[in-house]
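[Discussion] Sanity-checking designs against the backbone

I'm trying to build intuition for which residues belong where. Below is a structure token string of 143 positions. I'd appreciate it if someone posts a full sequence so I can compare it with mine line by line.
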């Protein structure tokens, strides 16, 4: 499995945890979701909704001048699991190259042991978030 170094570190950390701690540690990532940039607060239509998520969840992906990926998320405070997914992906993918992001398998979370901890419906949301990020990265890369 090919993962950017920061995401690989997150995956390894989770894999080493006892199953009963995984949900607790995952929810700690909700505090790591970066604050929404002002430009998206003023123009929310620039963000794409991930309709597979159970709560309103929006994202936008950009490439900086060096071609590195930066992801912006908007998710309500009362959706800790989705916010945790955003925090996890922000920590693991922000600053990666487009090629690194595109190489991440959609089921990367299986090595983390999350499939034994989180419902399949919520994991579909995580897969959908990653799919949107990858699609947006692909579009930005060819633009």
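Best answer:
Here's mine. Compare freely.
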């Amino acid at each position: 499995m090919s993962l950017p170094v920061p995401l690989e570190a997150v995956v390894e950390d989770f894999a080493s945890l006892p199953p009963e701690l995984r949900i607790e540690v995952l929810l700690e990532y909700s505090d790591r979701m970066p604050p929404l940039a002002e430009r998206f607060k003023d123009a929310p239509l620039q963000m794409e909704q991930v309709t597979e998520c159970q709560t309103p969840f929006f994202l936008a992906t950009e490439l900086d001048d060096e071609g590195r990926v930066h992801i912006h998320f908007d998710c309500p405070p009362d959706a800790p699991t989705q916010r945790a997914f955003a925090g996890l992906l922000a920590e693991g993918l922000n600053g990666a190259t487009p090629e690194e992001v595109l190489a991440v398998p959609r089921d990367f979370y299986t090595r983390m042991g999350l499939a034994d901890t989180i419902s399949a419906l919520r994991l579909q949301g995580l897969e959908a978030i990653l799919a949107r990020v990858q699609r947006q990265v692909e579009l930005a890369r060819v633009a």
